[in-house]
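Thread: "does anyone have the structure for this chain?"

Original post by V.I.:
We have the sequence but no experimental structure in hand. Need at least a predicted one for the grant figures.
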Amino acid sequence: MINLKCIWRVAKNEYINFILNPKIIILAVVYLIIEKMIIMPIITASDYMNQPVNLFEIPIATVNSSLGLLLILISYIVLISPFPRINDNIPFCIFRAGRKNWVLGEILFQFISGFTYAAIIAVATTLRGITRAYMVNGWSLVITDYDKKQLIPVNLYYQMTPYKAFFLSYLLLFLLLLFCGLLFLAGCLYSKKLLFFFIQCAHIIAGCGIMVTESSAMWFFPVCHGMLLMHYQTYFREYVFSPYASIMLLSLACVVYLIIIYKKAGKVSLDMIGGNILP
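Reply from O.Q.:
Generated one for you, tokens below.
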């Protein structure tokens, strides 16, 4: 029987462990790289032109960079690699709650952790430029007229407003994080935790690499569907691949994994789930 209280308790305990995970320091390292490679060029251009930026331009630039997306995804996979956690008390808790309630709690944890991680990236990068930013729904001269470097490619600022670009960028990021989390959870339940960890890392690195080439083969990689920038042509208002189709595909993939995970819940071997991948 489905027990919402048990499901919430499992998700809450995993989320607390996620937040208190010592590996969270990885996020600080990732931010420092993003600061140097993505944020500082925008800040430098703003100072050089003596012009403000739109509040959402820095977070948009962060997740529409292949380097930024690569760092965000790899760091997230590393952070969720110890989950689901199996310790001496967990078998008893699962016996009390039921395996399916336990798995539903783990699924809820994946939703919450993915949303939290995307929100942390969005808030941290937004706050970085808040002292020199405005809220009007239009691109700044720093983005459109700075001639030394293309800080946000024309694929975005010719096609839509900053508010729309921000919303779609972070919706795609959340769905991609959820996809990665559910894929990893499915791998854990099928006793392939380490294998799926390396599969995840390989597909993210390969996908971010092939995006640079702009080959049509990139659409075979889920990570490429997570970057809004790649969906638009440079000047013409036509899709290379519809971002709404990517939203539907990523959502469908998540639903498929939800079904697989739930069906596997009653047969899972607890002895094969536990253990950390990384020390």
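V.I.: this helps a lot. The chain has a mean pLDDT of 88.
O.Q.: and Residues 99-128 form the longest helix (30 residues).
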